[in-house]
Amino acid sequence: MKEKKIFNAITDVRDEYIEEARTTRLQRQAATWKKWTAIVAYLAMVIGIGGTLLLKNAIPFGGNTGTGGAGHDEGNVFMSYAGPIFPLTLDEKDHSMSATRDISYDFSLPNEDSLRTWGANVKDNYTLYNHSSEEKTIKAIYPFTGSFDKLKKLTPIITANGQELSPKLYAGGYSGKSTDVHDLDHPDGSSSTVRLDSWEGYKTLLEDGTYQSRAFAPYPLLSQQVTVYTFTDFEAPAEYHAATQAISFTIDPDKTTILPYGFEGGEFGDDGFRRYSYFVPNENSNRNQLKLLLVIGDDIVDYALQGYKNGACEKGNELDGVSTTVIRKEEILSQVMMEIIDNFFEQSGDGDSIAVSKEMFLGAVAEFIYEYGLLSESVKDRYQYSILEDILLETKSLQRVFYLELEMTVPPHENLLISAHMHKEPSFDFACSGSDKVGIQGYDMVTRLGSTLQFDGLTAELTSTDNIEILDQNYGFDLSQGITKVELDPMVEHYYLEIRSIEE
Amino acid sequence: MDDLQIIELYNARTETAIEKTSIKYGPMLHGIAFNILSNHWDSEEIVNDTYSKAWNTIPPKQPEFLGAYLGRITRNLSINRWHKQRAQKRYKGADLLLSELQDCIPHSDTIETEMQTKELVEVINSWLKKLSQDDRILFLRRYWFGDTVKQLAKKATTSPNKMAGRLYRLRQSLKKALEMEGISL
User: Fold this and answer.
1) How many domains in chain A?
2) Which helix (H) or strand (E) element contains residue B176?
3) A284, A187: one domain
């Protein structure tokens, strides 16, 4: 392709021009209206669009794994922080209950190449004591970090006296922060996301209990009545591979909110003008066939349909022969969102990777929309256009704290053994980063954060250590001396361990 | 920390050079990679590969403009990755930027000689030199850094529509410059 030659040649323009462009701001001009367009990366096809207004990257960066920076006073900071292992807690403080905790890390898991260890099998065991003369029925809660798309792998198995339980799962909200795409420290940035990168971040998140309380609260309802415009029967001249169907109308933004799904382009005018567009699906593309415009509030009126040769929805670029059938109906938002969630997972190929019910995921989506999206009191820049694919993708993949709740009975003056078995992913630096921490796996735990339990004893143990070496820690293990089990001080808030697998 | 200090860390083989580089240039490099690859994890790998290449090439290299030096590595790595991934039809990547640059291809009736990339770079450099500073910055922000039209419009406090029009005129200007050189691609 000839344009590739130009694209490659641009790479090598003079350094001073690049530096100039890097350090100098564009001159400001008067703005009268806004326009956005997005192509959802995993759905999009290769399209030729000269002089286009379709902005694939209107969806900002996919988020950041961490800044590798502040707020961490012990151990390394990793580029990808997995989050600590939390302690068991009770739903309410009970002075007649106490516990001892024994945690073990097993490093027998092979890596993909079967040579090295990657990740650990963790057994987090608790012996709960009932010091009273009455039988106690308790609600125990076990928190863990993860995301909806990794739940199957990361959800702990909980047993009580050896019997596997079926605890109820609750999901906390997104645990990270909003930030600016180019300036991670921007105080008002809300165009990107950044994961927590230290245990102190989790401490700030969890220590006042608000986050956990919200996780256990019912999800907000999407009970709004919406008008749904469904687009079907797509037609376009076959020779135009990027033929685009646009719908335009004018709304009063104070009275009408539009949520598009399956659209790749859009324009916002300050006068209420809206134009949404999609590349016409055809049998040779894998473009999503589900195209919906959800209207909350006053309905749209007098919409116009227009076809274009490509994504540039401009005068002179119109194309005859582009058509669609538009069906209008009224539904409850949650109902149509269920249909969209089905389609979303079908499109992304993750249909069987979600370990929760569709209803729970819908609840998390609703929470996300109310917290960050157009139903929020302070809409984040990242979601200002209400593209539903953005909301669904981020609900699925953003890091959060989950809670497993189990109800049990502890007889008077007796104890109960509760165990959490889980695969724990390590914190790590990316391969080829040049970092001296490449290949190092970080594991850490917190001893009291978020827990109402009183811990009378705490031990930690390493097993299957033949293939690892310890590089840094504050546990007190000494593999060379055979010290693989240590007693810990429950009053020390945070323990960390950094290991590397030994190549065979 | 300024660039000279960071380069001194590389020269001294001090590994904090990577950390300092990451703090100063990490977001920019991620942006360049992401604007080509549209994939967060791949972009993260590319940025890390960039650090690795910088570590292996400084010294002996002593770049005058560290940002441009690193950005070029990221851009090249990203384009290479994009080619591979595109062959596997994994994602769309830089197609949008390429499709826009189709506007710059000279008409075939102007062909005299087929231009080598090095010569093409020089023609583009000459063309950039003749532009106003603001147009030059705009062109490179779009086609070197890969900033979206929306981002550029926001920075210039104008509408995306007007910004797209301005970019279109710049592409037409480059096309004309290439045609005046009698260039075939």
Assistant:
1) 2
2) helix B160-180
3) no
A401 strand-pairing partners: A145
Has residue A47 been placed in a domain? no
Look up residue A468 and give its amino acid.
I
| C-beta neighbour count of A48 within 10 angstroms | 18
Question: How far apart (Å, rounded) are the C-alpha atoms in residues B18 and A79?
Answer: 12
Residues A378 and A439 reside in one and the same domain: no
Domain ranges of chain B: 3-87, 98-184
Residue B92 has its nearest CB partner, among A11, A28, A41, at A41
In terms of domains, do A359 and A236 share one? yes
Contact A433 B91 (CB under 8 A): no
Is the domain covering B3-87 a CATH 1.10.1740.10 domain?
Answer: yes
A6 and B79 within 8 Å at the Cβ level: the answer is no
A249 forms beta bridges with A274
Is CATH 1.10.10.10 the right assignment for the domain spanning B98-184? yes
* Most B-contacting residue of A57, A186, A399 (CB-CB within 10 A), to test interface: A57
State pTM to two decimals. Answer: 0.64
First to last CA, chain A: 47
A368 in any annotated domain: yes
Minimal C-alpha gap between B54 and chain A (Å): 9
Chain A contact probe: residue of B149, B169, B178, B181 with most A CBs at under 10 A: B149
Tell me the CATH number at A487: 2.60.40.3680
* Residues A187 and A106 grouped into a single domain: yes
Q: H helices of B1-93, where?
A: 3-11, 16-37, 40-57, 66-87
Question: What does the pLDDT profile of chain A (504 residues) look like in tens digits?
Answer: 577 788 888 988 998 899 889 888 887 764 333 444 433 333 333 232 333 323 333 323 333 444 333 335 566 678 889 999 999 999 989 999 999 999 999 988 665 555 556 789 999 999 999 999 999 999 999 999 999 988 988 999 999 999 999 999 999 998 887 766 555 555 556 666 677 888 999 999 998 899 999 999 999 999 999 999 999 999 999 888 889 999 999 999 889 989 999 998 888 887 889 999 999 998 767 778 899 999 999 999 899 999 999 888 888 999 999 999 999 999 999 999 999 999 988 877 655 567 788 899 999 999 988 888 877 777 777 777 778 988 898 899 889 999 999 999 999 999 999 999 999 999 988 776 677 788 899 999 999 999 999 999 999 999 999 888 999 999 999 999 999 999 999 999 999 999 988 864
Q: Which residues of A touch B120 (CB under 8 A)?
A: 5-6, 9
- CB contact (8 A) between residue A9 and residue B19: no
Question: Within a domain: residue A430?
Answer: yes
| Inter-chain CB pairs, A–B, below 8 Å | 248
Same domain, A239 and A345: yes
In a domain, A274, yes or no: yes
Chain A residues lying within 8 Å of B25, measured CB to CB: none
Contacts of B175 in chain A (CB under 8 A): none
The Cα of B185 is separated from the nearest Cα of chain A by a number of Å equal to: 6
- Distant-in-sequence, close-in-space partners of A21: CB < 8 Å, separation ≥ 6: B136, B137, B140, B141, B144, B145
Domain that holds residue A275: 225-397
Alpha-carbon torsion (B29, A429, A80, A76), positive or negative: negative
DSSP string, A465-498: -TTEEEEEESS--BGGGTB-EEE--TTS-EEEEE
Nearest CA in chain A to B69: A15
Contacts with B87 from chain A: Cβ below 8 Å:
none
Please give the single-letter amino acid code of residue A25. R
On chain A, the residues whose CB falls within 8 A of the CB of B57 are none
Contacts of B27 in chain A (CB under 8 A): 181-184
Regarding whether A172 and A113 lie in a shared domain, the answer is yes
